[in-house]
Every structure is written in structure tokens, then in C-alpha cells.
Design goal:
The protein has about 675 residues and is α/β, with parallel strands linked by helices. Helix content is about 50%, strand content about 10%. An 8-stranded mixed beta sheet has the order 1-2-4-3-5-8-6-7, with helices on both faces. The chain has a two-stranded antiparallel ribbon with strand order 9-10. A two-stranded antiparallel sheet has the order 11-12.
Length: about 675
């Protein structure tokens, strides 16, 4: 029975003609030669085009538009309530304190206890805290009248301060004289800033159980005061505001550090004095930085108010998306009561809102390009308007991503590191003559919107709160989620996978373990040495490391040999190049995948930059052999490679304020691997 089966099997064996098999292999090889370049370029181009279409298309939702609002919790519904308008006039002091002959309050606590407004002492308590020798701030604690709704009390922190534009060395004294004259007219902390005046009115309302019965969380208001140990009570009004000006980022850093009772932090390596225990028992859930940008003329565009909602933190950190949209929609709300003048509204009064800190310069360049493009294409008015709207969103998206990658670092960034949802709101109101006791309507409406936001946040139990923390925003009213932008990021990185697979399954004849191990070990050692020198001396020796890697590559390439069986010359150098490219693509994938998942704003531009260098720009074997035999072409290509390596070195191409971890952990090793790959 077994023999019969064997006979049957052998009789059914199909004989394959060697010539037919050879022709089939040639056809398959020809198909692969055409297919691999397509697989290397098409996904890369599609990924870039898909990313450019984010402001227009949402593939996840299947809509021809960018996704709009995102509110995850019912408690953050900002449309369920209204807030009364804030006063447009300051309240004067009926009787001046005996200790202050000038009638000035040099800090927020002085303004609270001055008796200017009927602020409840039972609900509002303020203290001046000298966290370090350089950072002093006032902290006002507002207790909810109804008490916390849950056992573990939660808190909201609002940091209020001014940001001055960068002055030239000789401008400080003159500018301070002008501001101090204004301070004399407007009377101290309360009078020196319209935002401060409105915030004091908000403190009064939050501390009143009749005006804020909805308050369920403790609210802290933090404001920087005079530094350098200036005596607040005996200081004169001509004290230099350049001396008094405190960095808001340092205030946030030191406040959180002193609140948590620890030392260090990003603010300083000095000892930070902790806050009293009664001021630091609740858990901080949200932090808002209200930055009043003054005397920054380049922000002003035809006298419009500028508002920037900035959620960007360091390392790609972002707050919950619903906090950003709750903030934006709070500005869209109307005050309670009857009709009101829309020109007094900070949102409807012809203001400009952005989600990035770069002003109008970026938008003007992008919109100018698309406007010229529309004129060349002779588009009609409606199409041209749509194109300009797309250009505005695209520039906003680029600005949002750039702010996450190169900064500037926002004051709330340190709070995000501690898991606190935080963002910075910058406001710039053009200087207008509204009178010494008047409050600009936009500042008054700004504080009303902040109270509206506090009421929305106060209804939310953060312990049960879930939201989206990975996103990008073309504008304050639109967003691109992680599930949307991850697909084009995968497409951009796909050529590295295709190149590694084609090398492993088709192109490589023999993997050069010794050569690759030597080169990769040298690259890792050189990267570690360079990182050590950067951290210890502040200097990078990437040029020296590139020369070391080039020398190791030159010394490690084995000599070409002849195969004994076939008698054909074995191109060892070409095999070394293929083996090293295979490993370089694997390392590129390994480094970019976690970066794309954690910090897309940095990972996507990095993948766009490195994918062509590692995977796409590779000469076929026949062209590489032709160039190696032609001395002129070989010399030209060698010079071009060296010049390009110098041009893309970290010290040349990377911005100075980019993440040092990215420069040392990802960029430098890939730069050294590319050096070895191009010099094989």
C-alpha cells in the first residue's frame, strides 16, 4: 500500500523547465525593481499631503472639514450659565491707610486688605510668600461658601501678571518713568493694570456666597510682587519696575514647588520656602496663567485685541483638550442681562484669537503664498476666500506644532510636568485713553470670561475626568486628534520598513556582522561621549565624532574576495553598505515610533527629515558601481556628501532651543550612522 502511494505521488510530480523558471525569476525581479521605488516614495508623499490636508479633511469622521469642539464632560458645558458684566470703573479709597501716604498697594494682598472693595475676610485670605530671594508672590485663597463636594478637596490656580516686551539696555529707565507716572495716576497694583483691577473684582465676587454659590473648589490667585527684598510698605512709587518685574514661568515653578513642599524644580537650584500647611492641603487640578502682554507693538494689527490660548508644554506635553475648548467657548459667551455693546466684548469686538505664540508674521507669509497661487490660477472670489481660510488654518497648525518643538516655553509648562492641566492665556489690548479710573472693556470682559470658565471647571470632578491629551490645533476652534494624524505619520515612516525588508529578503547576499557591529558600537560610544561633553562642558564635538566614525569605517571594511564555488568577485564593500543601511533603517524605526506616539510635533518633522536620508536616497547597485569606477563622479559625490553632512549636523541645522534629549538621543546617533553609511 505504501509503495502504491509512492508511485502515485511520483507520477503526479510536475517537472519544471529550468528555462521557464529562469524567465519567471527574471519577470519577478523586474517587477520588484519597479515596485520597490514606488513603495519607497508614494507612502512618503501621501503622508505629507495627508498632513497638509488636516485643516480640510477628517478621514476618521469621514467629513470634509477639520474636527471642531471637543467637550468630554457634562460639567464643562459652558452654555448652561451666564455671568454678569464686570465694572468699567475703578473704586477709589475713601480713607488712605496711615502706613501708605501715597495711597498705593504694591501687591495683590495690599489691594485686598486696603478696604477698597468689600471682600469677605471669612472666604478670602491672602499672604505674601517669599519663596526664594528672587521670587516673591502674593497668594489669595478663596474658600467655597458651600464647602467641597467630595472628601479630597480640589483647587484651581490662577497666576496673574504682566509680560513686558524685550527692551534695549537704555530703554528701561525711560519706560519705567512713563509707567511709574501712570502708576501714580492709577494708584498701585489695583490701578497699574486694568487686568489686575478686574481680577480684584473677580476675587470679591468669588468670595461672596451670594455671587458665587456655585463654587465648589478652592481657588488660588497668585500674583508676583516686588523682588530683591524691597520693603513693600516703605517703597516709593518711583521704584523701578524693571527691578520689580518677575518672570511668570519662575512664579509658576516656585509656587508649585513651594506648594508641594519640595526643593529644586525648574525655577532654581536654591532652597524654596514651602507654603503654610493651611494653604497647601487641596489637590491642584487646573492652573491658568493670565499674561497681560503690554507695549508689544508688533502684536497689534490695526488696533485689534490679541488673545492667545496656549496649551503647549515642554516635551510635547498638553493639557486635556476639553479645558482648551472650555476656555475658548467661555470667551464666546454673553453676559447675563439685556442687550450689551458688542464692541465691549473681547470675542465679538473684532479681536484675534490664536493657538500659537508667533503672531501674524507666520500667517502673513503663508497666506501671501497662497494668495499669489490663487491669483496665478485665476480663482474666483469664493474659491480664493476658501483658499485663504485654508492658508490661515495651515499656518495656525504649523505655528502650534512649532511652538511644541522650539518654544518659547510657556509659563504653565512646569505644571504639566506634575500632571496638572494647565494653559497660558496671553491678552494684549491696544493702549487707548480711557481715563485714569476707567477699566478697558476688553479687560473687564476678559475677567468675566475667566469667571465663566471657573464655574464650568468647578462643576467637574477631576477624579472621574477623561479626555484627549494628544492633539494639534489649526485654530482655537479646531483640532486634529491623535487617531487622525498618526496614519500619515506611519506613511511617512513606512519607507524605512520597506527598505529594511527589501534588503533582508532580496538585496543582501551576506550580512556583515563584524563590520556592522564595529560601526554601530563606535556610533553608540561616540554618541555617549558627545552627550557627556555637552552636559559637562556645554560644547558639542560632533565634528570630531564624525571623523572618528569615518576612520573606523575606513579601517573596518574587509577586502573583496572571490567566491570559490562560482569564481565570481564578491563585492564586500557593497554588502557592507547594504548591511549598514539595513541596521540604520531599523534604528531609525526604533527611535521614531515611540517619538511619534509621545510627541508627534517633534516626531513627524524628524521622520520627514530622516526617512529620505536613510531609506529613499540610495543608488541602485548598477549606478553605484558606475560611480565608483568614474573618478570624477566619485570625487564629486564624496565632496557633496561631506558638505551635506556638515550642513545637517546638529550644531548647524537644529535650533538652539530644541529639546536636548532629541538632539543627543536621536539626532546625533542617526547623524553618525548616516556619516558611516555615506562614507562606506
Amino acid at each position: 500500500m505504501a509503495s502504491a502511494t509512492t508511485t502515485t505521488t511520483s507520477s503526479n510530480t510536475i517537472k519544471i523547465d529550468p528555462l521557464t523558471e529562469h524567465l519567471r525569476n527574471q519577470k519577478r525581479e523586474k517587477l520588484l525593481r519597479r515596485l520597490i521605488p514606488i513603495l519607497l516614495t508614494i507612502p512618503y508623499v501621501l503622508g505629507i499631503l495627508w498632513t497638509a490636508l488636516h485643516p480640510l479633511v477628517s478621514v476618521i469622521t469621514g467629513e470634509l472639514k477639520c474636527r471642531g469642539s471637543y467637550i468630554d464632560e457634562n460639567g464643562l458645558d459652558v452654555h448652561r450659565h451666564q455671568v454678569e458684566s464686570y465694572p468699567l470703573k475703578r473704586v477709589g479709597l475713601s480713607v488712605l491707610p496711615l502706613s501708605d501716604v501715597h495711597g498705593s498697594d504694591f501687591g495683590m494682598c495690599d489691594a485686598i486688605y486696603s478696604g477698597r472693595l468689600p471682600i469677605s475676610d471669612a472666604s478670602v485670605e491672602c499672604l505674601r510668600h517669599e519663596a526664594t530671594g528672587d521670587v516673591v508672590f502674593d497668594v489669595a485663597r478663596i474658600m467655597p461658601a458651600m464647602g467641597p463636594m467630595i472628601d479630597s478637596a480640589e483647587a484651581i490656580v490662577i497666576v496673574v501678571g504682566e509680560v513686558q516686551h524685550q527692551q534695549q539696555p537704555g530703554e528701561c529707565q525711560a519706560a519705567d518713568g512713563e509707567r511709574n507716572n501712570n502708576n501714580q495716576q492709577k494708584d498701585g497694583w489695583y490701578g497699574s493694570s486694568d487686568l489686575n483691577a478686574s481680577i480684584l473684582h473677580m476675587i470679591q465676587k468669588l468670595g461672596n456666597s451670594k455671587d458665587a454659590p456655585w463654587l465648589t473648589k478652592i481657588v488660588y490667585i497668585v500674583s508676583p510682587t516686588t523682588v530683591n527684598n524691597v520693603d513693600h510698605k516703605n517703597a516709593t512709587v518711583d521704584t523701578s519696575s524693571c527691578q520689580q518685574q518677575t518672570n511668570l514661568a519662575a512664579v509658576v515653578d516656585t509656587f508649585i514647588t513651594s506648594y508641594l513642599g519640595g526643593d529644586g524644580g525648574d525655577a532654581s537650584s536654591k532652597h524654596v520656602n514651602p507654603l503654610p500647611p493651611e494653604f497647601s492641603f487641596p489637590m491642584i487640578r487646573s492652573l491658568l496663567v493670565l499674561s497681560d502682554v503690554v507695549e508689544e507693538q508688533q502684536m497689534t494689527k490695526q488696533g485689534n485685541t490679541q488673545v492667545r490660548i496656549l496649551p503647549q508644554g515642554t516635551g510635547g506635553a498638553l493639557p486635556n483638550l476639553d479645558l482648551v475648548f472650555a476656555t475658548y467657548y467661555s470667551f464666546q459667551t454673553h453676559p447675563s442681562g439685556g442687550r450689551y455693546d458688542q464692541s465691549q466684548s473681547i470675542y465679538y469686538g473684532d479681536s484675534e484669537f490664536r493657538a500659537h505664540p508667533f503672531g501674524t508674521e507666520l500667517e502673513n507669509r503663508v497666506e501671501g503664498f497662497f494668495t499669489r497661487l490663487g491669483s496665478m490660477l485665476e480663482l474666483d472670489k469664493s474659491s480664493l476666500a476658501s483658499l485663504q481660510s485654508y492658508a490661515s488654518d495651515l499656518s495656525g497648525w504649523i505655528g502650534f506644532v512649532a511652538a511644541l518643538v522650539i518654544g518659547p516655553v510657556q509659563p504653565h509648562s512646569f505644571a504639566l510636568k506634575h500632571g496638572i492641566d494647565a494653559l497660558t492665556i496671553e491678552v494684549h489690548v491696544p493702549t487707548t485713553s480711557v481715563g485714569a479710573s476707567a477699566i478697558h472693556p476688553h479687560y473687564a470682559d476678559f475677567s468675566r470670561c475667566i469667571e465663566h470658565l471657573l464655574r464650568s471647571i468647578s462643576n467637574l470632578h477631576e477624579r472621574l475626568h477623561h479626555s484627549v491629551a494628544q492633539y494639534t490645533m489649526p485654530s482655537p476652534s479646531k483640532f486634529v486628534s491623535h487617531g487622525e494624524y498618526i496614519y500619515p505619520a506611519i506613511l511617512v515612516s513606512l519607507p524605512m520598513v520597506v527598505r529594511a525588508a527589501s534588503l533582508a529578503l532580496r538585496d543582501m547576499t551576506s550580512f556583515q556582522f563584524v563590520f556592522v557591529g564595529t560601526v554601530v558600537g563606535t556610533v553608540l560610544l561616540a554618541s555617549c561621549v558627545n552627550a557627556y561633553t555637552v552636559f559637562t562642558t556645554g560644547r558639542s564635538f560632533i565634528g570630531v565624532m564624525m571623523m572618528v566614525v569615518a576612520w573606523v569605517v575606513h579601517r573596518s571594511i574587509p577586502q573583496s574576495r572571490q567566491e570559490i564555488e562560482t569564481g565570481v568577485d564578491f563585492d564586500t564593500k557593497n554588502e557592507c553598505r547594504k548591511s549598514l543601511r539595513f541596521v540604520a533603517c531599523l534604528i531609525g524605526i526604533y527611535l521614531h515610533v515611540p517619538l511619534l506616539l509621545a510627541n508627534y510635533s517633534l516626531g513627524f518633522p524628524s521622520a520627514v527629515f530622516w526617512t529620505p536620508l536613510l531609506a529613499i536616497f540610495a543608488l541602485p547597485d548598477h549606478l553605484a558601481a558606475m560611480c565608483s569606477k568614474n573618478t570624477v563622479l566619485k570625487t564629486i559625490m564624496a565632496i557633496a556628501k561631506i558638505l551635506l553632512l556638515v550642513a545637517i549636523s546638529p550644531s548647524t541645522i537644529l535650533p538652539s532651543n530644541i529639546s536636548p534629549q532629541y538632539a543627543l538621543i536621536l539626532y546625533t546617533p542617526l547623524q553618525l550612522l548616516l556619516t558611516a553609511l555615506w562614507l562606506v
